[in-house]
Amino acid sequence: MKSALKLILIILLLTYGMDKLMYMGLNKISDKVMSGQSIGKLNQFMILKDSLDVIAFGTSRSNHHIDVKKIKPSSYNVGMDGSAIAYSATLIQLLPKDKDQLIIFNIDPNKVFVDDYDASDVKGLITKYNRNPIIKKAVSEANQDNVLQHFLWSLDYNGKAIGIVKNYVSPKYDHKMYYGFDPLDITEAQTETFKKSLSIKSNYDCDDTKKINPDVWKYINQINDFCKANNKTLVMLTTPTYDPECKVQYDTLKKALQSIGVSYEDYSGFFLEHNDLSYWKDKTHMSSKGAEVFTTFLKTELQKKQIIN
Amino acid sequence: MLFNSIEFLLFFPVVFAIYWMLRNSVSKQNILLLISSYIFYGWWDWRFLSLIVYSSFIDYITGLKIESSPSKKHKKRWLLLSLVSNLGLLAIFKYYNFFADSFAQAMSTVGWQVNDLTLNIILPVGISFYTFQTLSYTIDVYREQLKPTKDIVAFFTYVSLFPQLVAGPIERASNLIPQIKNKRIFKSSQFNAGIFQIIVGLFRKIVIADNLAIYVDTVYANPELHNGSTLLLATIFYAFQIYYDFSGYSDIAIGSAKLLGFNFNQNFNFPYFSKSITEFWRRWHISLSSWLKDYLYISLGGNRKGIKITYRNLLITMLLGGLWHGSSWNFVIWGAIHGTALAIEKFTFSKLNIKNFNVLGSLWTLAIVLLSWVFFRAQDLSSSLLILKRILSLDYTSPFIGNINTVIIALLMLTLGLCFDIFIFRKKVTLENYGSTIKPRNLAIFTSVVIMIIALFYSTSNNFIYFQF
Questions:
Q1: Angle at B435 between CA B28 and CA A149, to 5 degrees
Q2: Does the structure show a pLDDT above 90 at B359?
Q3: Is ipTM beyond 0.85?
């Protein structure tokens, strides 16, 4: 029995030591990675966040639709494919307290009026779990952490190590030129595929009795409270879609946001009157051409409202 | 409770510590094992514990009654009671909807419309495993190959012992009950072997199998969207996924049992290195294949009644083996493919007086196994046929990759797993025994390195595939 206990003790000590070495090694490499959506973009945001004037948040629709540099030179788009409101809300908490910043937040009703939302998108920040108390708190509150992460820090890099090494050895792009906006340049073949897909009917469940998901609402309030208390101007909007569905949900969302003093603009039908296939990659994502037209319009709107000069 | 859960990580050390504290009293250890096994099972759904208790009670009584019965006729009656009770439960919980649905479909083909007869029944986890385990007990007692036990706690513990309760290995009473009744002695070599096998099992399950599952699940969810090369790649991945998933589960089960002083039988022995389907079944899910051989194939007459009856028996055994896995025609077809391949091998090997096809045998085995896995994994018969049609069309354009990082991790870990398998296979030792030959210092290093690999590459826990059976 003694030998068994000794073996367990050695395994625990060895694992603890190896884990810390591995964790520190990966931190070193990871901190130098500036390309790739998962780590590079987050690292770049962490470095730039204190000096930015305009920051766009949201999903891939924010990432591909809002060319923030057109709005202000010192800007960054943190929108990311697969991320939802918990991810963005946590990043917003990291912004400096007293700097005047404009936050443009793309919000879509189909992510708001949902029955099940588990905030698992916040796991996208897991690499910073043991290094950033705000992220740690957000991940824990969303119940997305692993209790073993308190002891086994390498778990922060679970599933990410290959991507980190890949981007470290061979960066995908020059990060000095990158500001988070990823325009979608469309080929003729893609336009053809999109044309064909238009005949497919959407099966989106437009239920006008649906309520805003309470967890989503909690994050909306968290963002709003932070912005009000820390000198941030929050603009929530829905960027264009090819064929906006369930307009009633947009109206409900608008009313709900107005009730807590959040400015919201529904631009989902922006292209409806002058729709052109070249503006689209698919029904929810605009092409680079569409994004350019929309961002130019958005800038004018923000100027009209005197949110920017 | 899943082996790869935080709950089990807390549960097992507590049971382990109390268990060895009680090492001077076998009866107290057995009571602890019984209670902890019921907690382990009840963690999933405590209501279904009643089925295990019922099954245990029936077989405890019938075992004693069979032995004390004065005539063969009386013994047979008690055996029948055990068979009807156990298979009845299985029929209700596992097969009722399948047969009701098949009946309704058959009726509709002759023009009779039958109302929906299916019921909303939950399949109790592990029912197929513990049913077969208790059945083997009463059949062995009936065949006078085993003396029934009067120790009710030992018997109930035999049926429910938590390391093997929900997905096997299907342990024979002749192996396990004596171990439960006798004093267990703590041995360092057995402890080390247990640690080794648990860590290998965890790596196989949550690193290799669960990473492969991401690609397989994506492709098999919508096979109509994918080309032949993608479907072939997903099927190859699935072959390894199910192997590492189930053998990983068995490793954790066998390893945990070792830590408690029990020796379970081997359940997997590198099946993909087989040179025939016959050999494959000696290496794959050994506890089930040997159960089917001993209690079904031999009961049907085995190979003692002429060549035609032998082929029939092989086919029936494998068809029922397929149905044991799940209540769908896909599993029946899976069994039929294996049964037919076994019959072909029996015929060819006896005509040519050979034991396998050598190198060609490996290819033949791989082809049959892959073909059958399509039916095992696909959602229904039409999906299986579509997948096979596309794979066999040989129109192999570039495959769908999806998330490149996920595929790279899956391939890297699969390579690591295969290298490990080849290493052990070439050593000509079983995985069960290899752990006890490693020096404690090396075992500690090996375990820590594997824990690091698990931390960096594990995939979020999917249920073990065989839990659904």
A1: 80
A2: no
A3: no
Inter-chain touch A15–B452, beta carbons under 8 Å: yes
Q: How far is C-alpha B12 from the chain's CA centre?
A: 22
Q: What are phi and psi of A75, to 5 degrees?
A: -150, 165
Question: Model pTM?
Answer: 0.87
Which amino acid is residue A170, in one-letter code?
A: S
Residue A199 confidence (pLDDT) above 60: yes
Apex CA B373: angle with CA B372 and CA B376, to 5°? 95
Q: How confident is the model at residue A207 (pLDDT cuts 50, 70, 90)?
A: confident
Using an 8 Å Cβ cutoff, are A141 and A215 in contact? no
> What is the reported pLDDT for A290?
94
Suggest the residue from A2, A3, A38, A126 to mutate for an interface test with chain B (most B CBs closer than 10 A).
A3
B392: tokens are 């066999």
Interface contact B444-A162, CB threshold 8 A: no
Using CA atoms, how far apart are residues B429 and B275, in angstroms rounded to an integer?
19
Q: How far apart are CA B277 and CA B336, in angstroms?
A: 13
Task: Tokens for B299, please give them.
Answer: 């009961």
Put simply, the answer to whether B186 touches A162 (Cβ < 8 Å) is no
Q: Tell me which residue in A1, A7, A157 faces B440 most closely, judged by beta carbons.
A: A7
**DSSP strand pairing (A101-106 vs A54-57):** parallel
Q: With contacts defined as CB-CB under 8 Å, which chain B residues touch A4? A: 186, 188, 191-192
Burial of B123 (0-12, 13-18, 19+ CB in 10 A): middle
Please name the residues in contact with A189: beta carbons below 8 A apart, sequence gap of 6 or more.
none
Q: B440, A166: Cβ pair inside 8 Å?
A: no
State the amino acid at position B267 in one-letter form: N
Q: Does B442 touch chain A (CB under 8 A)?
A: no
Smallest CA-to-CA distance from B253 within B370, B163, B173, B335 is with B163
The pLDDT, as a whole number, for residue A274 is 80
Any idea where the domains of chain B sit in the sequence? 6-184, 189-275+357-468
Take residue B21 and report the two structure tokens written for it: 């504290």
Return d(Cα B385, Cα A57) in angstroms, integer. 45
- Percentages helix, strand, coil for chain A (3-state, rounded to 5) are 55, 10, 35
> Which conformational region is residue A106 in: left (phi greater than 0), alpha (psi within -120 to 50 degrees), or beta?
beta
Task: Tell me B3's DSSP state.
Answer: T
B451: which 2 tokens? 């824990």
For chain B, give the percent of residues with pLDDT over 90. Answer: 73
* A4 part of contact set with chain B, CB < 8 Å: yes
- Contact B334/B325 with Cβ under 8 angstroms? yes
Which residues have C-beta within 8 Å of that of residue B314, sequence separation ≥ 6? B297, B339, B342, B343, B346
Environment class of residue B182 by beta-carbon count within 10 Å: exposed (0-12), middle (13-18) or buried (19+)? exposed
Tokens of B194: 């247990």
Any CB–CB contact under 8 A between A292 and chain B?
no
Mean pLDDT of the region B177-194: 94
How many whole angstroms separate alpha carbon A114 and alpha carbon A213?
A: 6
In the predicted model, is pLDDT for residue A230 greater than 70?
Answer: yes
Sign for the CA dihedral angle at B292, B295, B297, B302 comes to positive
CB under 8 Å to B320, separation ≥6 — which residues?
B292, B296, B335
Burial class (CB in 10 A: 0-12, 13-18, 19+), B115: exposed
Higher-pLDDT residue of B346, B395: B346
State whether the Cα torsion B378-B381-B383-B385 is positive or negative. Answer: positive
Active site residue B325: yes
Nearest CA in chain B to A160: B456
Residue B468: its pLDDT value, please?
A: 65
- Residues A1-10, buried b or exposed e (16+ Cβ, 10 A)? eeebeebeeb
